[in-house]
Structures are given as structure tokens and as C-alpha cells.
Amino acid sequence: MNKMKIHDISYPISPNMPVWPGDPPVVVERVSSMEAGAGVNISRISCGVHIGTHVDAPLHFLRDGERVQNLDLHILVGDAVVLEIPSDVSLITAEVIRKAGLAAGTERVLFKTSNQERWKLAPEFQTDFVGISPDGAQYLVDMGVKLVGVDYLSVAPFNNSREPHEIFLKAHLILLEGVYLNKITPGNYMLCCLPLKLIDSEGSPCRAILMELG
Amino acid sequence: MNKMKIHDISYPISPNMPVWPGDPPVVVERVSSMEAGAGVNISRISCGVHIGTHVDAPLHFLRDGERVQNLDLHILVGDAVVLEIPSDVSLITAEVIRKAGLAAGTERVLFKTSNQERWKLAPEFQTDFVGISPDGAQYLVDMGVKLVGVDYLSVAPFNNSREPHEIFLKAHLILLEGVYLNKITPGNYMLCCLPLKLIDSEGSPCRAILMELG
Question: Is residue B42 domain-resident?
Fold first, then answer.
């Protein structure tokens, strides 16, 4: 492996991050503290699994869907394209994706949208984020895409969550939500997004990176 | 990126995993359940950050040490060697490492030991696991290694935890603990271990993989 450049596209996990309305709160706390006289520092985390940068497994919306521990690492890792969506687009439709120039054979696509401005309003959760319409979801499925990434907390708009999720998850696409693309130039990368190996969960927070191979 | 083979070396996260004595319990629970009539499944996780496959940051043992969110991704990702340690070895000393044949210039090394048998005794935590002695730790620092991986829950033996940790962490090595190497053939790989981007934590669970590039 030659020298490579690595870009972190993960949103920081802390009590100050925006979370989906009704989700469990994010707690990161010291349960053993050297400042308080303990020999070591030890922290505990408590959170919902759909926080920040995370993946959805089919079980999230499908009663008998696959668990997150079974998602294919060969889809979670590999060539990816970051596509820029114009800042005046509020819904990613099939037409928007066509105009953005999704190439045939693309297996992983991340959409960079005006959502990057919404992260700046943290910790308040923004309901007007840009998501993918049902026909946009179907277009990506028909194009043979295997992983779809979005830059806020859901692939689907706030007021129409179910249909796009179901279209994607029934077709076994992996959904990577909450990537932080503010500093990323659109183009081609190697994506590596690794959810925790949580057993019996429908999703997991993950660290996600984009690599430029030398 | 050509075709590659990916090996998962992460231990499953569940209430049935062995945890360090005194650490917070591992909880993975459904807080919204389709079986119970909800529209979606949503899970919550609660755990200490030093469970299963995880990384230690210097703050774990050093009062002013670096936080996990600042660990260098260029160390967490890159060429690595898996070195086999004979099954009759109970402590990884400098001499053991020399005999195992650590090559000059190695930046990331994972030790495969008899600990693989100890995982089979889960959920009970095993105190007699194989760890690295202080002189072994110093040898690895002197060799210029930047990341050390071990196949049970600590780099250091149960009865001498502090000294090896301090030697490693003062030298800014990244410690990858709890890797699951049972199915891994010793040799050369590309390692990718990605801790969560937890803010102000001294460690994090992570997903870790070994890749064979085509």
C-alpha cells in the first residue's frame, strides 16, 4: 500500500450532536476518572444507534430484515463517488441524480448537498434537510448502486421517511447516513465505513473515511 | 481499487461478551420495536468504551493524554503484519518478539496467541490471558512500531496492567485490543481499524478488518 491521503467524513459523537426527534439521548461520561483520584480513565457511552454518521440495516424498516452484523464488508469498503447536488435542490429526485451525472456501474455514491449548512445549526435537529424521493431511490436501485450515502441524518425527507427507506432496504442497499462532507471535494475515492459489529441491531454508528490512493 | 478479500477481526458486541471486571455492562436493546407495533425498529447501545475490539488512546492511562478523536487515521489504516506467538508462551517479552521475527520497519503488528482459546470461554472474562511485558513494550517502541494489536482485552497482563500501557501510550503508540484472529493466517495485510469519533473519550470500540489487496 503506497502513501495515501485519508479524509474523515464522520460527525463527532457528543451530547451536543443533533439527534432524531424521540431518539435516546447521547451520553459520553467518565465512569472512572484520574482527576477524581482513580488509576485510569474509563468512559461509558449510551446512545441510539442511528446517530451521527451511521448505517441502516434492512431490519430498521423491514420486520424480517437483515441485521447490521451481517452487512457485507465488501460493500462497506470500496470505490465510491461523491456527487455534488446544487444548493437550490431540496429533494433528490431521479432527474436530479441524472443531471448530477451518476455514471453507469457506480456501486457507492455519496451526495453532497446543502445539508452541510444544516450541521452548523447543531445541536438543533433540522427537519428541512435534503433527502431522496421515492423515484430517486428507485432510480439508484435500478442503476445497480449498492451503497448510498447522504449528508444528514436520513436518506429520506423528514415528511416521507418510509417509502424511500423501504425501496432501498428491500433491494438490500446499504444506507450510510450522516456523513460530514463539508471539506470534501466531489470526485472519486475509496470509501471505508465500518459499523460496529452489534448483534441483533438494525443499525450502528460508524466511522467513515474516504481515501485517495497514491 | 481491484478486487480484494476482507477479513473481519472484530469480536461481536452483545450482552454475552466478556468484559473487564468492574466495567459497565453491555446493553443492546430495542427501544422501538415493530414486533410490538411500532413503525420502525430502533436500538440503543450502552457500554464501556473498552469492550471487545477497541482502541486505547493515551488519556486512558495518562492524565493529560490525547483523546481518541485525535488518533491519527494514517496509523489506524495501513500495512500490518500478523505474527504468530507459540501457544506455550504466556507473556510476550522482547525475546519472544525477536524470535517471532518482527521485521525492521514494521509499523503495525498484531499478535496471534493462545488467547484465541480464551474467547471460547465467553461470557466469562479470563484473567490468565497472554499480554506484553514491560520489556516487550519497550522493544516495540524502540523498533518504531506505531500500532500494536493483541487478541484479548488488554495489551498488558492482568496482574501488571499499568507499566506496559504507560510505555506504549507515552510513546504515542495506538493500542488495538480485543482483535479476533481465530480464522486469520499469520502474514501481511492492510489493516483498517476505525474507532468511533467519540469526543473526550480515552478509547472507543471499533470495527477492525484485514484486507488482502488483489
Answer: no
Which of A190, A199, A205 is nearest residue B14 as measured by Cβ atoms? A199
Q: pLDDT tens digits, residue range B77-119?
A: 999 999 999 999 999 999 999 999 999 999 999 999 999 999 9
Residues B96, A173: Cα–Cα separation, whole Å:
46
Sign for the CA dihedral angle at B17, B129, B177, A35 comes to: positive
Count of helices and strands (H, E) across chain A: 5, 12
Residue A207 to residue B194, Cβ atoms within 8 A: yes
CA dist., res. A41 & res. A16, Å (int): 21
Does any domain span residue A41?
no
- Asked if residue B165 belongs to a domain, the reply is yes
Q: Do the domain assignments include residue B20? A: no
Q: CATH number of the domain that B85 lies in?
A: 3.50.30.50
Give the pTM: 0.97
Q: Which of A24, A44, A61 sits opposite B47 (nearest CB)?
A: A44
Q: Are the Cβ atoms of B10 and A43 closer than 8 angstroms?
A: no
Active-site amino acid positions of B: 60
Cell 442503476, residue located:
A143
Omega prior to A186 cis, within 30 of 0: no
State ipTM: 0.96
Up-side HSE of residue A87: CA atoms within 13 Å toward CB?
5
Please state whether B112 falls in left (phi above 0), alpha (psi between -120 and 50) or beta.
Answer: beta
* Active-site hit among A54, A60, A165, A172: A60
Contact A176, A50 (CB under 8 A): no
Q: Which of A209, A4, A13 is nearest to A122 (CA)?
A: A13
Domain residues for the domain of B130 are: 4-11+49-213
pLDDT tens-place string over residues B76-88 = 999 999 999 999 9
Evaluate whether B207 touches B194 at the Cβ level (below 8 Å): yes
- Reduce the DSSP state of residue A135 to 3 states and report it: helix
Enclosing H/E stretch for A5: strand A4-8
A13–B194 CB contact, under 8 Å: no
Name the domain count of chain A.
Answer: 1
Among B24, B43, B207, the residue with its CB nearest the CB of A49 is B43
A105-119, pLDDT tens digit by residue? 999 999 999 999 999
Alpha carbons B182 and B128: distance in angstroms, whole number: 18
